[in-house]
Design a protein that fits this description.
Layout: E1 2-4, E2 10-12, H1 13-16, H2 19-34, H3 38-51, H4 63-79
Antiparallel strand pairs: 1-2
Helix pairs in contact: 2-3, 2-4, 3-4
């Protein structure tokens, strides 16, 4: 599966992310659509990063994962009418 950021950068989710990172992203793809505010999405992101995959412990986001998290947050803001499309 591929994901393209609002800035046009594409990632292959199976190749570019670890299993733990993919699990985190799956949760956040859902929260991207369900969050009622950007702050709620940020809170869910922090919680997921702390818990890790199957409560395995914290995930430290590298550059690639951080870019994805920033993009997802921007999509939440855009969906809620708080941000301009990129």
């Amino acid at each position: 599966m591929f994901y393209t950021t609002r800035q046009g950068r594409s990632y292959h989710l199976e190749r570019d992310f670890s299993s733990a990172e993919r699990h985190l992203l799956q949760k956040l793809f859902i929260w991207q659509e369900m969050a009622g505010s950007v702050e709620e999405f940020r809170r869910r992101t922090r919680e997921a990063l702390l818990r890790g995959w199957g409560d395995s412990g914290p995930i430290r986001p590298g550059r690639t994962l951080q870019e994805m998290l920033t993009d997802l947050e921007g999509r939440v803001a855009q969906r809620l009418g708080m941000g301009k499309p990129a």
